[in-house]
Design brief:
Alkaline Phosphatase, subunit A; Sulfatase; metal ion binding; 510 residues; 30% helix; metal-binding; alpha/beta
């Protein structure tokens, strides 16, 4: 064979290689199932992140994550209570359908999770940090580096491991994972959960530079409280930077989805445990270099109940038919695509009895208070700390504004309606304003439709508070941890109401 023929054969081989590469221009990493990293903050509001415009809180790593990925401006949680929010996320169900809707109730073993589905499909699954979902879910994780709690008096920190952030084991989990499988990791911070401590940060915030929402008084105590809260956010942000760097070192960043959210809003009055935006609106930042355009902004409504079906779709799986959420993949790829007209949120027992529902569009919020005779008391850890104590002092002096008195108000309004675009802090209730009758009726219909379609119902009895609303210290009903919903249901069938394992009384069934 002469040189000319060799040249023709060589060019033919090169052309075939080029055509083959062009027909499948994805890298080997892109042909694999994507890795998924879910990072969950604890008690952090959406607007306390630099990427969302906060001028004082330093979150350089989250800000960079937003620049390299997509930031959502209309992202919401199904509830503003720690464990119900987490069990809702992992199960893809609204809290009332998880059978774990009250604080510290475990997700039952008959409820499926997206983590188990990923594991069954060949993913390695791991969790590091805060857990708080109940024993049955533990088996869904191949590795569980759970932050432990020590026995300590109410009001004192019970964090046991490392620096108390819950983030210490994040990198260890990523490094110890098997390298021959796609992976899912649930990285859960304790920051910024109460109690807060001075001296935790090497570069503490100046209380005089804090920004306090108008529904809380600006006092020396509240400014100090917010500064300590900011400290914890920045500490968490440092760990997030380490996670992103570790993914780069391992060479998997290109095909790894990183989603950052919070389980509920900041642990301050009228935020956590409420259905105002300070409680249920969440930071939502996602980075996926293989699919998402950098520096993207998404203004579509999304809910944390949508995470489960979305992650399963990303992994090439069919979402479970039981899921209450919707798949968000289309709006991740094209921000012009909207997948929701509204979001639904609920409030159940969290230290104190309550039952409240809300529906939110991009413009309006409607809240239905089913127990208006109960005040909108924040969680017990908030009551025992600085801001609430200063609010009580200002209340007793008569210096609180009408908005700042809302947590003490008895009775609460049966209905609340807010124009979020005009009134972002939800200070002006429009439910009795006749100019908004059409909006109010529309929101009522949305709420009714959601309750009927998801089988939401009002309990037949109320639970006693675990804490004293004025002081935040335990009542007699908190002698032991509260039993699960299954125990309550069994007691109800027997014509009893079970307050705690040591207190049972017969009730009328009429």
């Amino acid at each position: 064979m002469n040189l000319k023929n060799y040249s023709v054969i060589f060019l033919l081989i090169i052309s075939l290689i080029f055509v083959s590469c062009k027909s499948n221009n994805k890298t080997p990493q892109e042909n694999q199932k994507p890795n998924i990293v879910l990072i969950i903050a604890d008690d952090v509001s959406w607007d306390d992140i630099g990427a969302y415009g906060h001028p004082k809180v330093k979150t350089p790593h989250l800000d960079q994550l937003a620049k390299e990925g997509m930031i959502f401006n209309q992202a919401f949680l199904t509830t503003s209570s720690c464990s119900p929010s987490r069990t809702s996320i992992v199960s893809g169900l609204y809290p009332h359908n998880t059978d774990a809707e009250q604080l510290s109730w475990p997700l039952p073993d008959y409820k499926k999770t997206f983590v188990q589905e990923l594991k069954n499909a060949g993913y390695w699954t791991g969790l590091a940090g805060k857990y708080h979902m109940g024993d049955p879910v533990r088996d869904d994780f191949d590795s569980l580096l759970e932050m432990q709690w020590k026995d300590a008096p109410i009001g004192l920190d019970r964090r046991l491991v490392g620096d108390g952030s819950g983030c210490d084991e994040w990198i260890k989990l990523l490094q110890e994972r098997p390298k021959d499988k796609p992976f899912f990791t649930w990285l859960a911070s304790f920051d910024a959960h109460r109690p807060f401590y001075e001296g935790m940060s090497k570069d503490p915030y100046n209380p005089e530079e804090t920004i306090i929402p108008p529904y809380m008084p600006v006092t020396q105590a509240s400014k100090k409280d917010f500064a300590l809260y900011y400290d914890e956010i920045s500490r968490m942000d440092d760990y997030i930077g380490k996670v992103v760097a570790e993914l780069e070192v391992q060479g998997v960043a290109e095909n790894t989805v990183v989603l950052f959210i919070s389980d509920n809003g900041r642990a301050f009055p009228r935020d956590k445990t409420t259905l105002y935006d300070g409680g249920i609106k969440t930071p939502w930042i996602v980075k996926w270099p293989a699919k998402i355009e950098p520096n993207s902004v998404n203004n579509n409504l999304v809910s944390s109940v949508d995470i489960a079906p979305t992650f399963m779709t990303m992994a090439g799986l069919e979402p479970l038919t039981d899921f209450d959420g919707v798949d968000l993949l289309s709006t991740l790829i094209n921000t012009k695509i909207s997948v929701r007209d509204d979001v639904y949120a609920e409030d159940h027992f969290h230290d104190f009895e309550d039952y409240t529902r809300a529906v939110r569009t991009t413009k309006y919020k409607y809240i239905k208070n089913y127990y208006p005779d109960l005040p909108n008391t924040p969680s017990a850890d908030i009551i025992r700390d600085l801001t609430w104590k200063s609010m009580k002092e200002e209340r007793d002096k008569g210096t609180l504004t009408e908005a700042q008195m809302r947590c003490f108000e008895i009775p609460r309004p049966n209905e609340e309606l807010y124009d979020i675009e005009k009134d972002p802090y939800e200070l002006n209730n429009l439910a009795l304003n006749q100019d908004y009758d059409y909006v109010l009726n529309d929101m009522r219909i949305r709420l009714k439709r959601m309750r009927e379609s998801t089988n939401d119902y009002l309990p037949t009895e109320r639970m006693p508070d675990d804490f004293v609303r004025e002081t935040g210290y335990p009542t007699k009903y908190r002698i032991r941890p509260r039993p699960s919903k299954a125990v309550y249901m069994k007691a109800r069938e027997e014509g009893k109401v079970l307050m705690n394992p040591d207190f049972v009384e017969t009730i009328s069934t009429e």
